[in-house]
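Hypothesis: this fold can be encoded by more than one sequence.
Test: take the structure tokens below, design a sequence, compare later.
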């Protein structure tokens, strides 16, 4: 210590700790001269002693003015050393960096000033302390003292200049430091970090793109900052990196894809748009690298398709189409199950557009990887079935297309129809609102005859008789009214002429027996008027209830539609179609006279040519009653008659009538059992309610089966 004091006059040391800046400055100049002389003489040990004195007695002093003097003295010593300062930096820099955390703002300011002067002298040799200096500057950028902030900014610019011209800077050592600070929320720190990222990225010899995954998430996080300037700086940096990605042959798409997927779900609109734009470019550029991430990317895209912001929706749709157009091989890591899991999850999205695209994905995968998709859907079939209850018709239609594609083989077709029947049974609202749409579309996609035969087969063995009756009534109405089933109706009309029609008639009849009116409708469509009359005659008093009359009302109105034009034209020849007349009169006799249906049918029957219908009915032939429905040329009459007789015998109408009566007997027993269960309570009021409810249609009924308002009270019906 004595040697050092002999080198530096006491007055200099005293002025170095003075409260006046000018005195400290003059003292620093004295020290600079002393150190310069020692450097010329090569007295580096004495120089070290001087630096040690400035550090221990001044820079680390409890007195603020002494600390200020120590800092300016260290900077002066560095200036005095000039080119030889590098070998003393280990002594000079640490106390200056330590002063950045000083409680006194002026000390922190002088620390910035001192380090600035030191850096100007040593330049590239300064790089060895870069990480510590960066850490200190990061903190100072958010300093509470604006003067300190200003000084830190000046120092920051100098350090950036030094780094950009240095060939010793280690980006590998710097990135962990940057990554740790990227999620800091302070706006000044964020500006500081973005500034460094931009500067380093501009240096040709520094590969910032290779380390982009380490700080990409932090940049995206800044896009939602409250400061417009920070958002703009982050966006500018991201745009520059995206351009570099487009021009670079080697990019780590995988790690960045994971970050983008997360950011695509951000609550901030600008962040979502930027993320989905990046994903769009990645899908175009990424190639095989992105195959393992397709599911995650799809999970980010599908919700954005329904985004409230149009720009996001447009980019998301474009990305979705690009992704779906890529034909990846499972052998390359393409995870079909993961993609299907995402699509299945999005089927429950609250947004219609997203649900639609999810179904498009299932359909596309089904077309390319049928066996794998069906294997997956065997465990996730409920999700597709639930889509049939969707509020959107487009979603329902797409779901049906997927179901139809799955049901191309025999096993899955049987399963589909069986599950649909169970769904309709468990959800009567679905049957009411979507039943007709589902059945009609399936008939178009899977062949109407095949669909109706399978429905009939399932319903024939149905144990829930009430449901079976409602379901058959719905299927019957669809058959009679849907344009998609015109060909199937045409085949039914040939039931007494061709074997194919006869087989269809027998197949449907077995389940149509659940509903008397459906059975009568089927017979009228097949022109089996004799059997229709027999069915009517077999009905009992308990069969003709409000539900029956509602269905009868619907049938009478349907008889006036173009579908039954052939039947009305046949009334022009009452002599040939006497069983038709008898059937229609039978229906008329069951209708209440005050009902609209009664008036409609009676008016129609009044138009029958005016010769005695009674005589015609008396003259009904006991021969084959179905030979009358065809007109034959004289030469072919015997051949056609033989064909008709064969078909008639194959249908075996007596057995069909017995089948119908047996089924109706089951329904009567079931109704009685329900009535007894309801009447088990001894309360008179309760019994009256049960009796009243027994005569009403079950609820809920499909809308097409609800009674007219005049039939709401069964007691108003007058037979």
């Amino acid at each position: 210590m004595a040697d050092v004091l002999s080198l530096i006059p006491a007055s200099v040391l005293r002025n170095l700790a003075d409260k006046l800046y000018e005195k400290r400055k003059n003292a620093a100049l004295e020290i600079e001269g002393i150190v310069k002389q020692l450097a010329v003489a090569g007295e580096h040990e004495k120089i070290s002693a001087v630096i040690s004195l400035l550090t221990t007695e001044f820079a680390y002093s409890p007195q603020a003015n002494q600390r200020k003097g120590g800092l300016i003295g260290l900077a002066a010593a560095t200036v005095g050393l000039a080119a030889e300062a590098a070998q003393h930096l280990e002594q000079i820099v640490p106390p200056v960096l330590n002063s950045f955390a000083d409680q006194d703002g002026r000390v922190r300011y002088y620390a910035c000033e001192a380090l600035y002067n030191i850096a100007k002298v040593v330049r590239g040799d300064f790089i060895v302390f870069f990480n510590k200096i960066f850490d200190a500057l990061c903190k100072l950028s958010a300093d509470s003292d604006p003067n300190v902030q200003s000084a830190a900014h000046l120092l920051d610019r100098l350090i950036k200049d030094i780094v950009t011209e240095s060939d010793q800077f280690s980006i590998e050592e710097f990135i962990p430091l940057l990554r740790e600070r990227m999620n800091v929320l302070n706006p000044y720190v964020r500006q500081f970090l973005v500034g460094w990222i931009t500067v380093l990225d501009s240096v040709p010899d520094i590969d910032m793109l290779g380390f982009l995954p380490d700080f990409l998430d932090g940049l995206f996080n800044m896009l939602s900052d409250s400061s417009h300037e920070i958002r703009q700086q982050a966006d500018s940096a991201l745009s520059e990196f995206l351009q570099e990605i487009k021009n670079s042959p080697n990019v780590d798409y995988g790690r960045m894809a994971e970050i983008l997927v997360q950011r695509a779900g951000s609550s901030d609109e600008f962040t979502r748009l930027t993320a989905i734009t990046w994903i769009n470019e990645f899908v175009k550029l990424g190639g095989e690298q992105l195959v393992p991430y397709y599911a995650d990317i799809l999970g980010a895209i599908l919700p954005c398709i329904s985004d409230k912001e149009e720009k996001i929706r447009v980019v998301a749709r474009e990305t979705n189409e690009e992704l779906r157009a890529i034909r990846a091989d499972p052998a390359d890591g393409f995870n079909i199950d993961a993609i299907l899991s995402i699509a299945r999850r999005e089927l429950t999205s609250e947004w219609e557009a997203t649900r639609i695209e999810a179904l498009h994905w299932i359909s596309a995968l089904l077309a390319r990887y049928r066996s794998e998709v069906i294997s997956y859907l065997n465990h996730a079939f409920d999700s597709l079935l639930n889509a049939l209850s969707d509020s959107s018709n487009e979603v329902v239609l797409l779901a049906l297309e997927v179901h139809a594609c799955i049901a191309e083989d025999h096993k899955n077709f049987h399963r589909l129809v069986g599950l649909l029947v169970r769904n309709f049974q468990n959800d009567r609202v679905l049957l009411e609102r979507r039943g007709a749409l589902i059945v009609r579309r399936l008939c178009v996609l899977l062949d109407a005859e095949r669909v109706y035969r399978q429905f009939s087969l399932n319903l024939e063995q149905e144990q829930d008789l009430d449901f079976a009756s409602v379901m058959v009534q719905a299927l019957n109405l669809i058959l009679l009214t849907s344009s998609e089933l015109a060909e199937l109706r045409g085949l039914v009309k040939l039931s007494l002429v061709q074997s194919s029609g006869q087989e269809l008639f027998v197949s449907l009849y077995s389940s149509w027996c659940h509903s008397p009116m459906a059975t009568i409708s089927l017979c009228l469509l097949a022109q089996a008027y004799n059997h229709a009359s027999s069915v009517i005659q077999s009905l009992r008093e308990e069969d003709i209830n409000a539900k029956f009359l509602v269905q009868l009302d619907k049938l009478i109105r349907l008889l006036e539609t173009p579908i039954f034009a052939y039947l009305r034209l046949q009334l022009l020849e009452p002599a040939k179609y006497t069983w038709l007349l008898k059937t229609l009169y039978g229906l008329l006799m069951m209708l209440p006279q005050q009902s609209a249906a009664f008036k409609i049918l009676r008016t129609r029957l009044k138009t029958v040519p005016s010769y005695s219908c009674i005589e015609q009915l008396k003259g009904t032939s006991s021969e084959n009653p179905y030979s009358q429905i065809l007109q034959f040329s004289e030469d072919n009459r015997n051949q056609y008659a033989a064909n008709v007789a064969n078909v008639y015998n194959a249908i075996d109408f007596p057995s069909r009538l017995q089948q119908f009566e047996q089924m109706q007997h089951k329904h009567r027993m079931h109704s009685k059992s329900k009535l007894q269960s309801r009447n088990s309570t001894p309360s008179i009021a309760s019994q009256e309610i049960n009796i009243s409810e027994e005569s009403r249609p079950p609820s809920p009924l499909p809308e097409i089966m609800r009674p007219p308002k005049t039939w709401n009270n069964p007691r108003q019906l007058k037979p």
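Residues 627-635, 683-719 have pLDDT under 50 and may be disordered. Residues 417 and 454 are 7 Å apart (CA to CA).
Hypothesis status: open.
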